[in-house]
Amino acid sequence: MAVHVMTSSEAVAILEALAAAGVAACVGGGWGIDALLRAQTREHSDLDLWLPATDLEPLIAALAEIRIDRLFPWPGDRPWNFVVHDGGSRRVDLHLYEPLPDGSFHYGSVAAGHRFPATALEGEGVIAATAVRCEAPEWSLRWHSDYAPRPVDRHDVPLLCARFGLALPPPYEVRAQHEGEQRCGPHGCTSA
Description:
This protein has 6 helices and 11 strands. It has helices at about 10-20, 30-35, 55-65, 135-145, 150-165, 170-175, and strands at about 25-30, 45-50, 70, 80-85, 90-100, 105, 115, 125, 130-135, 180-185, 190. The strands form 3 sheets. Strands 1, 2, 3, 4, 5, 6 and 7 form a 7-stranded mixed sheet that branches. Strands 8-9 form a two-stranded antiparallel ribbon.
């Protein structure tokens, strides 16, 4: 099985290809946090993108042009959230939303979806010296708090909180204190 690595240059190339096709992509996930921090702080396995469901057709065509043209089965895939890849190292996690008449966005199923304000996707960041649209800091934090933290989240979230003066959510506040492990609190992480 291929190891998935999304470099900064590949992320920018994908975003540029989508912009050229008229796709209004917004960067989320780990690259979204690094974009907000304006620096790459770790290796990334994919590129998370938010986009309007109406952009699906030009999105698929643009991704196919750059050979990201295969579904990557992932637990919990849904029509509004699925992963595509190139058969090699590049993987893109797609999050499709629908704009609503009141200006907010709807993400998920009709029966159990989520509404959020358009401002949630109006963050400004930088990847490899290229300006990108990304999740707003407080919404990036909110979305990284909806599940049990993974090691990459324990890296990303304290940096996001420290940079933007946000309080660490409870799953990130306390960690088991073992020799050599970091302890995370509202002002970042320190070695135990």
